[in-house]
Amino acid sequence: MSCLGTLNSGGSILYPTDTIWGIGCDATREDAVRKIYRIKKRMSSKSLILLLDSPNKLPLYVESVPLITWDLLKNITSPLTIIYPRGRNLAPNVLAEDGSVAIRIADHEFCREMIRQFGKPIVSTSANLSGASNPLNFADINPAILEQVDYTVGIYHDIISSMKPSRIIKLYENGEFSVIRH
After folding, report:
1. How many domains does one find in the chain?
2. CATH label of the domain that carries residue 16
C-alpha cells in the first residue's frame, strides 16, 4: 500500500518532517489517532501536533484564526507550532482537554506535497516512545515504532537531522499569547 493509501485507510505512517522523523495519521479519524497514542505508549490526555500544507487551510480546522497568527507565521522563520483556542472538523482525540489544537504549517517539500494530495491535516508526533529522546535520523528510531506503524516512507533515511522539535506558541481568545517551547 502507498503512503496516501495508508492514510486514507486509517493507518499510521512514519515519515520525515521539517523538524524530526514523525509518526502520523489522518487527524480527522478518531480510530487512527488512537493507534498513534498506542504506538507511542502516550497518555491520551497529552494532545498531538497536526500538520497542514498551507496557512490558507487554517480556517477549516480552527474556529477563529487570531490576527496575530499571520504576523507570527510571517516573522518566525524556524519551525513554529501554534496552539489555537478552538479546533474543529478534527478527531476529538487530537484536541486538548480545553478544545485547543496545535497546528504547524509544514516547511518540508515531501510533507507539504503529501498533505496537499491527502487533502486533510495529518498528525505529527515525534517518532519515539513517550518520554524517550527524539531520533535525529532514521537509524535512531526505536524498532518497536518501526514494527507498529503501517507504512514507512522510503526517503531521507540517510539524512541526519540537525533540527529540533518546533517552537510552540499558544494563542488565547483575548489576543494574548505565551511561548510554551522555545
Report:
1. 1
2. 3.90.870.10
The model's pTM: 0.92
CB 35 within 8 A of CB 125: no
Q: Which domain holds residue 107?
A: 3-181
Residues linked to residue 179 through DSSP beta bridges, in sequence order: 169
Question: Partners of 51 in the beta sheet?
Answer: 104, 122
pLDDT tens digits for 114-158? 999 999 999 999 899 888 888 878 888 999 999 999 999 977 677
Q: What span, in angstroms and rounded, lies between the C-alpha atoms of 17 and 73?
A: 18
73: helix, coil or strand?
A: helix
Output helix, strand, coil percentages for the chain, rounded to the nearest 5: 30, 20, 50
Q: What is the C-alpha separation between 117 and 43, in angstroms, rounded?
A: 30
Q: What is the pLDDT of residues 67-100, one digit of tens each?
A: 899 999 999 888 899 999 999 999 999 999 999 9
